[in-house]
Amino acid sequence: MERIKSIFDREFSQWRIKLPADDLEYQHRGELKGGGWRISYVFGENSRGPFLDFLGWHRMEGEPRHKRIYATGEVEILPTYIGFIVHPKDATQEEIKAIEKSSTRYNRRVSKLLELKGFNPPYRWEGEKNFELEAEVREESEQLLKMFTGGRGES
User: Fold this and answer.
1) What is the extent of the structural domain holding 99?
2) Is residue 155 one of the residues assigned to a domain?
3) Mind listing the pLDDT tens digit for each residue in 92-140?
4) In a domain, 153, yes or no
5) Contact by Cβ (8 Å): 113, 123
6) pLDDT (tens digit per residue) in 30-71
7) Do 99 and 86 meet the contact criterion of CB atoms below 8 Å apart?
8) Residues in CB range of 115: below 8 A, 6 or more apart
9) Which of 1, 25, 67, 86 is most buried (most C-beta within 10 Å)?
10) Structural domain tally of the chain?
11) Residue 44: phi, psi to the nearest 5?
12) Nearest by Cα to 110 from 140, 84, 85
């Protein structure tokens, strides 16, 4: 578990943010704030061993950091929001709308995954209520969560 702390602390060393030793020892979920960061974290275990998932959001950066650190020292980058949308210069309005819709769907899936983990996502993807889409996002998020937790269905 010390590798988890070492990697986490190194990730945020520039801002002097460290994972509290008690939270590591007792595997408490928590939230840290400082240096412009808001970082939520939760411990879990899957077939690859114990891990720490964190979502770090800096007020000056465009996209959050969503990562999993295993006790072995392996770091896995997890799904996070698509912040900026780039489309071809000659894209039609129809193509632009399709790209934006796809990005919104993806971001809704990420929000749902973060909520299922118990994180407080920095964005809420509101807008038109599309119940078919919401059901699809919920189902896909649950599948993603199972994949990320080794089939346990919880973080």
Assistant:
1) 2-148
2) no
3) 999 988 888 888 888 888 888 888 888 876 555 554 444 444 555 556 5
4) no
5) no
6) 999 999 999 999 999 999 999 999 999 888 876 789 999 999
7) no
8) 121
9) 67
10) 1
11) -160, -175
12) 140
